[in-house]
Amino acid sequence: MRRSLVIVGAGPRGTGLIERIAANAPELYDGHGLDVHLVDPHPPGAGRIWRAAQSPLLWMNSHAEDVTMFTDETVDMAGPVNPGPTLHEWAGIDGRTFADRQLQGAYLRWVHEQAVAALPDGVTVHHHPLRALRVSGPREGRQQVWLEGRPHPLLADLVVLALGHLDAELDAEQHDLAEYARTHGLVHLPPDFTADSDLSALAPGEPVLVRGFGLAFVDLMVLLTEGRGGRYDGDTYVPSGREPVLHVGSRRGVPYHSKIGYDWTGDRPPLPRFLGPAQIDGLLARPEGFARGEAAVGLSREDVWPLVEKELGFAHYHRLFTVHPERTAMSWADFEEKYAVADPAERGALVAAAVPDPGDRLDLARLDRPLEGVRFGSHEELQEGLREYVEADLRRRHDPSHSPDLAVFLGLLSVYGQLVKLGDIGGWWHGFFSYLASGPPGPRLRHLLALSRAGVVRFVGADMEVRAEDGVFRASSPSVPGASVEARALVEARLPEPTVGRALDPLLRELHAEGVAESPDGLLRVDRTDGRLLDRSGRPHPRRFALGPHTDGRTPGAFTRPRTGGPAFRQNDATARAVLLFLAEAAEAAEAAEVAEVAGREKKAVL
């Protein structure tokens, strides 16, 4: 009997898993027949997010040279390295280009084709352009994967959920806002992947409240300006007259930091230093029952943040002292020795003594909340203040004299690679990482400035509060005390939270009803060693795995910058090896049973 593997989700995560299966198969799978079933209504490789059917105005937020789907020797994995081209090498474009998402989708489709072609003889891939509705079957037996519109299920020895970003039902606040909008004839667009949102209800010239200042807002900004016929003449925006007026705010009240616009030179900081495997093992050993490394349920920001702060500080000051020593007041050797043993208060005093210019010191709290305690006398003062803030951010992020910022970025990647081993420690870390390390391209922030000067975008401030009252939506912020903005339209510019309990995906809802384990943030709990799903008693399911943002092992993305360790690649490799080992053992057991059955029949015939 041929073995069968079902992968639900054929986007970049599913593709990455197939690539690792192909790489590990020569060692772990001896050529037994295998059917790999990919279940996804969207095209293999690109999936939903990177599909061709979206606006060519939408870009990636990474340089083309910083995007790869292939492993290298920096990935901590048991399987072999399988090198391949980055996006810019494959497409033959300048490495500093911010490619559009359609081009990235073409790259992902090519990677998928290469991965499938690399599978050994006897392994066949089948794509089912349908939605998976549920998974059934006993823990120790073959699984059934039920597909939309199919009367019979796919039979699988193993199932891997690589679902990617999912839609979710509205939470209580969103439900109330949506109901208010229906009752009063307003427009309310809930959290969504912006390329899928119907923006036609946002009328030209009308004010629109926008809550969220990350990448979803950038996409919204593009689609409602250039997407409606506007254009840029240098640093000036020339409107088409079809744009609404976007009043944008968020918890921080500022956009994500610009992508850094220069290359790394010289030696990298030796990371990890203060947040590595030993510290992760120590954190896992602290709460009772975490020795198996299932998930860090119970670990809070207070448990983890001191190590994060120390690690990022080390990356920052290593770069400052070794590349810009003229801006320091002691040797790196002396500073490093004292920094290693200092507590937080002592580190503050050490930095103040060793780094004369406050602009050269790393202040993570200030970076995280730049408008904390800042007040403006009017909305017009806020507009000018925010434009100055964005302009300063762009100058700094494109000036190599501030290269400790790039060292902090590398530190963030290192820290993410370690924290993912803990499981779900709360959404704070993912948000902080995205804000500092996964912001928009510099040109997008220059566009934002032009739109602000043109009056198409207006800033609301930090800790934006939205109220539904007097037949409208009204927004206010302590950044401008006593002031408010009203509109008949509200857009929640962010992705839906990937929680199991509120997912609209029918398969996840079925798993939730069955009692699959959830993290405190409502994510699927998985065994951090190989991605197997955990039940509420902490037992890993022998035949079900999950990878991606709906799990407590979520990573910054399914692809990554070359030579940065790629935690998603490490996870893909571990899951692929676990899958192949299971299938090989199942095939051997089946063969042994068949031999025994034949021998039994022959013996019976002789008797």
TrEMBL record:
Protein name in the entry: Adenylate cyclase
Superkingdom of the organism of origin: Bacteria
Pfam families: NAD_binding_9
InterPro entries named among the record's database cross-references: FAD/NAD-bd_sf, HpyO/CreE_NAD-binding, L-asp_N-monooxygenase_NS-form
Spans annotated as Disordered: 532-569
Species per Swiss-Prot/TrEMBL record: Streptomyces griseorubiginosus
Domain FAD-dependent urate hydroxylase HpyO/Asp monooxygenase CreE-like FAD/NAD(P)-binding: 6-165
